[in-house]
Every structure is written in C-alpha cells, then in structure tokens.
Amino acid sequence: MFRMVDFRRALTLLALGASALGAQEPQPGVQVTGAWLQEPHPGALVTGAWLQQRLGEPGILVLDIDSRRDVYDEGHIPGSHFVALTAIPLLGGAGFEPPPTESLEAALEAAGVSDDVHVVIASRSPLSATRLWLTLDYLGHGGHASILDGGMARWKADGRPLAIDAPAVRRGSLTPRPRPQSIVSADWIAARLDDPGVVLIDARAENEYTGADGGTGAQPKAGHIPGAGNLSWESLLVARETDPSLHPPDTLRARFQAVGARPGRTLVAYCVIGTRASMVYFVARMLGYDVRLYEGSWHEWSGRDLPFVTGPARR
Length: 315
Hints:
Layout (H helix, E strand, L loop, with lengths): L6 H15 L23 E2 L1 H6 L6 E7 L2 H5 L7 E4 L16 H10 L7 E6 L2 H13 L6 E4 L2 H7 L25 E2 L1 H5 L7 E5 L3 H5 L18 E2 L6 E3 L3 E4 L2 H10 L7 E5 L6 H11 L2 E5 L2 H5 L14
Parallel strand pairs: 1-5, 2-3, 2-4, 4-5, 6-12, 7-8, 7-11, 11-12
Antiparallel strand pairs: 9-10
Helix pairs in contact: 5-10
C-alpha cells in the first residue's frame, strides 16, 4: 500500500506528518503520529511487511472479515481468524443508532478480541475493514486496532504467505469504553448547519452528492445536506479493485483540506447508510482530526423534513 524504501524514509514522512498537524491534538486512543508506520508499536494502519514479521506473536490478533467463508478457506493470512460480516452488528450500516454495547461486546469477544491483544483487520473489502475499525473505535478499542493497508489484495499481490487451515478461536475478554460522542444524529447536525466549526463531508460519488442520480429507494430525495463538501471514499484509495491501498498522507490531507478540514474543526462524515462514510472516518482519525459519523446518513436525512440542496460539488 504505502511502499517504504527504508526505515529512514519512514521516519522522515512521520516527521512531516506530525509537523503538518501543527498544534492540533491527537484524538484519544489513536496513535496518530504512527498512522502509517511506527516501530515497534503499530498505528491505525500497518503494512504487510510489518504484519508478516509478527505473525504468530501472542499479542497480535488478525481478523479476516468477509461476507463469504469460501474465500477465506481458499487462502488467508496464517493464523488469522475468519469473521463473518453478519456475525458482528457493525456500525456504518442500516441503523440510525449504534447497536447496543452488550451485543457488540459479545460478538467481538466471540471473535477473540481482548483488552490485551492488538487487532489487525484484513479484508477483501476496504469498507468491511473500516466498519470493523469504526466499531472497535466506538467501543474505545481504536488504539488497539489497525487495518492492513491494501487488505488481502495487496497481501496476495506482494506474494506474502497464505494458509488454508483455520486456527481455533479462543474467546476474548473485552472491556468496552464507549465513545458515544463519535456518533451524531440528524438533530445534532440540523442544529449546527450554520456553525463554521462543523464540516460536513459527503462520502458518496459525485453524481449522488449533486443529485444527478435522481435518488434511489434508500435515498427518497436527491442531493446533499446543505454546506456539505464532497469527498468520495474511493478517492482515498489508489485503486479500489486492483490496489485498495490508501494514498500517502500528504495526498490524503490535501483532499480533506479541500473540503474544509482544519485543526480545531469538527468533521462529520456521512453517505447513504454510514458504510462508505466509515472510510472517511477512519482516515480522518488517522490524520488527527476530530471526526464524527452520522450513522443515519442520507437515508435518514432525506426521509425526514430536513433541508437539502442539489447542484455541483463545492470545491
């Protein structure tokens, strides 16, 4: 994903990233400084090389989340545990509110998540990975979870080891520390539409944002929330199908700044049902922004008597 020539270059990039953040304080629970590479502790994003060196370590739990078990059985990261996409009530779905903490805790413990392990999320779908990370972050476990940059596509393309055996899952013990402030409601947004300190980010494709798509069954109205900027989740990736790696930090930061992200401002990401917005949320957290997710997203907003606009993307 983020290909490093050597560790010295990595340190230089990290220093530049920290400088660009200026006086902005990192958000609790996420190692922003080491978002792309931090030795010996991982940040929110880890490379395949980092993970391969640590396969089998007791403090590392690799979760392979997917909608299909057969793709896992055909070849997965050695020691990784399969997690069915439907087994965990992930945030960034069709609900307007987060699932009960108790159900999240039970499902994650069944997958082996514990307070004393660092979770590395590997997936064939970037959005499945970010939804799981978002869920862990909501429970206060974001500082102990990372996403494998490029997921399984990058892992396989780099010729890294694969296995077909499925290791036994040992139930975990997780202490939830919910962060309810990370999720906002339609009413919360409606009360702040004129607040310059709140930046709304629409993670949908441009034709959905402008209303050119005409709306769908999940989007009773076409258009976007007033004042929102458009930052498609796919624009954060090198190539969705062939190389779903994140762009370098300077590129990502520039794209966030283009829609109004600044230190001291609160970002709110939304899409149709919160799934695509989970990618924007994840990257914003890595960059050190104060970011929230609007779980109900356009599906809820367009179904209520709330203001909306159509027209070209704001640049």
